[in-house]
Design brief:
Largest sheet: 2 strands, antiparallel
Radius of gyration: 24 Å
Strand content: under 5%
Shape: globular
Order of helices and strands: HHHHHHHHHHHHHEEH
CATH architecture of the largest domain: Orthogonal Bundle
Structural class: mainly alpha
Strand order of the largest sheet: 1-2
CATH class of the largest domain: Mainly Alpha
Number of domains: 2
Helix content: over 70%
Amino acid sequence: MANHAASQRRIPLSHFFIYPFLACYAVIVIYPVFWLMTTSLKKDQDIFLRPFQLPALGALQWVNFSNAWTKGHFGQYFFNSVMLTVLTLISVLLIASMAAYALSRFTFPGARPLFFYFLAGLMIPLQLAIVPLFFQMRDFHLLSSRFGLLLVYIAFGMPFAIFILTGFFQSLPASLHESALIDGATELGAFWRVMLPLARPGLIAVGIFSFLGTWNEFFMAFMFLSGSGSESVRTLPLGLANITIVSQYRSDWGMAFAGLTLMMLPSMILYVILQKHLAKGITLGALKG
């Protein structure tokens, strides 16, 4: 009996390698974030002279955050990014969920080619499409416009969302859909009241990726919002690229690191809250798709 208990307490040899590896990986991931946050509370001279030293508690530069919000126009950039991200998120989830539901539940001519047509959007490099897209946006007078950038974000977010949600809807039991129809629900009612709530993990997974992709996007915003008179419609990444040069053309690095910290916090908070749904939604969607 004692031998059996001892064998149960015996730690596998692989744990002596896995745990130190995971600990090192955690340090590699967490330390840059910690360094960014502590650097945002330093003076410029301390950033260059003592880059890896913790700031003194009595000399924390909280003013960097207020300067980023006011002098760096961070408040306006934050509003633009929030508006674009929320509208993109709602539009992509709404349109993609309806398209994915139709592709996964209904049989009609061209359903499979249509699915691969959407899927082809994942295979087109952004750099390849940016030139014709720029001229098209110019012809429609959508340059330096939040609405024009919103349309671009929705278009590029749709292929991935449809791919994941189509697989997720296929993983749901067909009997639930049939039961709703037998109980008198219309196709639209069965979708809104039964199938869509069951697809919540998939919607959350798509929403997280859509949020991160839109919130941190720089290249398309730079291409379409860099014209004259676009200061008021710039997003956070564009604003942060400009926030380092303020006040008599000198670089305010404390303000820049404060802006980066404020930009990073929403992504971290969202991921921590919804991370348990992410793996489930992606796994089911990718396997069934």
